[in-house]
Specification:
Elements lengths: L1 E8 L2 H32 L5 H10 L15 H19 L18 E4 L12 E4 L3 E5 L13 E7 L2 E8 L15 E5 L3 E5 L4 E3 L5 H27 L5 H38 L4 E5 L3 H6 L1 H10 L1 H15 L2 E5 L25 E3 L6 E3 H11 L4 E2 L2
Parallel strand pairs: 7-10, 10-11
Antiparallel strand pairs: 1-4, 1-6, 2-5, 3-4, 5-6, 7-8, 8-9, 11-14, 12-13
Helix pairs in contact: 1-3, 2-3, 4-5, 5-8
Bound molecules: zinc ion.
The site of zinc ion (ZN) has 8 residues, from loops.
Length: about 375
């Protein structure tokens, strides 16, 4: 099973249908929660997703005032109810908290469609055939595997854009017995995002002018938004239609910038992962991250959060599994930056500001992060994650 996610360009008509379905799905999700609360309090019973779906189809959606439910795609409606049921199941198993209502502004409800009939979810170079919507245009041509049929898809809306996630079952064409080069160690950091033992280094993208520019813009828009909120609060009462329109426009601008930054950072992390994996190393060693510890330092917290180390590691793990590379993780206590990668001598008085590692024993001089990555590569105590 493989998932592809890419942006789509739905037509105006398709956007209306998508939004209608998503709205109904959110409504039903929330309705399932409140309905069950009510029934439980009265009769101490739990209504299953299937029974609730029947109730919606046969009773609720025929009532005056609820007929708009029928405007949504039926399969998506049902999926949304089943998602809500799953949330309850997780709660019953004590895996999560009591299910919460979905809010419109979170944009976390998606349009779902399974392959139901012949020809459904067929992928062409520039479009995909989605039940209920018809052919939907793809932004990036040829990104999804052409002439394949997806098993199911979900479409999400984020900051005025639409994205499709397609689930395909296919065998990956890479085998495990390819020629492999030696292993690499990766040291992650703030100053530079990553330093690999093969000498490759990756800069911290949050320090580039492009990202800084967007951050500045975002800050400005957020400021203007909170001033608007303040202003309306002081004024009290209902705000005029024009004010609300301006507010909504401002919200959309903030969402768009936020999303933009997110996408840039994600794409960069994926880029680093693919550069690592491309050399086909026999293993990759990283350090177990003490993100919680790093976040405690308030000077570092924001830059650590922006680096997205956790996301990076997830992507790395995913790629390593895909390409059959052993992913090793070394414990936090391993003194990767204090050891000399050349002779193994341990330097006790190493301060954070020392960017060059100078060994007192064998006189070797190395970039600090490079030295750390070499130590990681040479580590003999580790956990295999793949
Ligand atoms: Zn040394």
């Amino acid at each position: 099973m493989k998932t592809y996610k890419t942006e789509i360009y739905p037509t105006q008509e398709q956007i209306i249908k998508l939004n209608q379905t998503i709205d109904v799905c959110r409504f039903l999700y929330n309705q399932f929660i409140s309905y069950n609360k009510e029934v439980y309090e009265k009769e101490g019973k739990f209504v299953s997703g299937l029974d609730f779906d029947k109730y919606v189809n046969n009773e609720l959606s025929v009532q005056e005032g609820f007929k708009w439910i029928k405007k949504a795609y039926g399969k998506a409606r049902k999926k949304s109810i089943m998602n809500a049921e799953n949330a309850f199941k997780r709660f019953f198993k004590e895996l999560s908290k009591f299910p919460r209502f979905k809010k419109k502004r979170n944009q976390d409800v998606s349009f779902y469609a399974p392959r139901n009939n012949k020809g459904d979810l067929l992928i062409e170079r520039h479009r995909i055939k989605v039940p209920f919507l018809g052919w939907v245009r793809l932004k990036e041509k040829g990104y999804l595997p052409v002439k394949q049929q997806a098993k199911n898809i979900t479409i999400t809306q984020k900051a005025g854009r639409y994205y499709i996630s397609a689930f395909l079952d296919c065998d990956f064409p890479y085998s495990n017995n390819q020629q492999k080069s030696e292993g690499i160690g990766i040291d992650l950091g703030i100053k530079e995002f990553a330093f690999a033992s093969n000498g490759h280094s990756f800069r911290n993208i949050n320090k580039t002018p492009r990202v800084r520019k967007f951050e500045k813009k975002l800050k400005r828009e957020q400021g203007s938004l909170s001033r608007k909120y303040e202003f309306y609060k002081k004024k009290g009462g209902k705000s005029a239609a024009k004010e609300r329109r301006n507010l909504n426009k401002n919200i959309l601008r903030v969402q768009k910038l936020y999303q933009r930054l997110l996408t840039i950072r994600e794409a960069y992390r994926q880029h680093v992962v693919s550069m690592m994996v491309k050399t086909k190393p026999s293993f990759i060693t990283t350090e177990k991250l003490n993100v919680k510890g790093m976040m405690k330092n308030r000077h570092l917290a924001k830059s650590v959060a922006n680096q997205g180390f956790y996301d990076f590691k997830q992507r790395l793990l995913h790629s390593c599994k895909k390409f059959g590379i052993e992913l090793r993780e070394v414990d936090t206590f391993y003194p990767s930056s204090k050891l000399c990668s050349c002779c193994g001598h341990k330097k006790v008085n190493l301060s954070l500001s020392d960017r060059i590692y100078k060994c007192d024993n064998c006189k070797v001089e190395l970039n600090r992060d490079h030295n750390a990555s070499l130590n990681l590569k040479q580590a003999t105590k580790y956990v295999v994650l793949t």
